[in-house]
Design goal:
heterodimer, A: mainly alpha, 3 helices, B: mainly alpha, elongated
């Protein structure tokens, strides 16, 4: 059963990865690209875990954890670089 | 018993993949950045959680030592996904509502 489910799940995650890459290329605003990069990192983590499942190794857990840390740091850094500063005193409606 | 647990793990894998795919379809098809933001931030987190649960169940069904440290991944994601989504929304707002800047979409707000 797993010999069928693991490749199927890999296929689903690869499809999700491809759609995220499409948004990364297309994205009209820079924030769209940051969002696509975030989603792409998550898909890569899942693909790594599934690959570890296929190769019967535990090492991919650390890889996925590291990817999660790096993806979060990258998302926060890029958002700050895009100008997501503190809310001005008048509120965000301005 | 082990077969039942394996079947549950297979179901979890498929559900996780389906959730990730739905989130990615949302990222591609929804019309506006703030609509696109709310799809994948939740769906991909659930997808990863399901995959990690399946990982633990498979190790348990095969009688191997269960890698409990894998639970750190969904735990970390559950904490950081809202923070990341908030930062991205703030960045998008900051570009549109910068004081003194000409708003290209002024008047076209629904």
């Amino acid at each position: 059963m797993l010999t069928l489910a693991v490749p199927a799940a890999i296929l689903l995650f690869v499809a999700a990865l491809a759609l995220s890459v499409w948004r990364l290329v297309k994205g009209p605003r820079p924030a769209d690209r940051v969002l696509a990069l975030d989603s792409l990192t998550t898909c890569l983590m899942a693909l790594g875990l599934l690959g570890g499942l296929m190769l019967k190794t535990d090492a991919m857990i650390e890889v996925a954890l590291l990817l999660a840390l790096l993806g979060f740091a990258a998302t926060i850094a890029l958002s700050l670089a895009l100008g997501g500063g503190p809310v001005p005193p008048g509120g965000e409606e301005g | 018993m082990a077969g039942l647990v394996e079947g549950l793990a297979a179901l979890l894998l498929l559900v996780g993949g389906a959730f990730a795919l739905v989130g990615a379809i949302g990222i591609l098809r929804l019309p506006d950045f703030f609509a696109r933001l709310h799809g994948p931030t939740k769906a991909t987190t659930i997808g990863i959680g399901a995959v990690v649960l399946a990982l633990l169940l498979i190790a348990w069904a095969h009688g191997e030592p269960v890698p409990w440290r894998a639970l750190l991944i969904p735990l970390f994601l559950f904490v950081t996904a809202p923070v990341a989504a908030h930062a991205m929304a703030r960045a998008a707002l900051g570009r549109r509502a910068r004081p003194g800047a000409v708003r290209p979409d002024a008047g076209s707000q629904p």
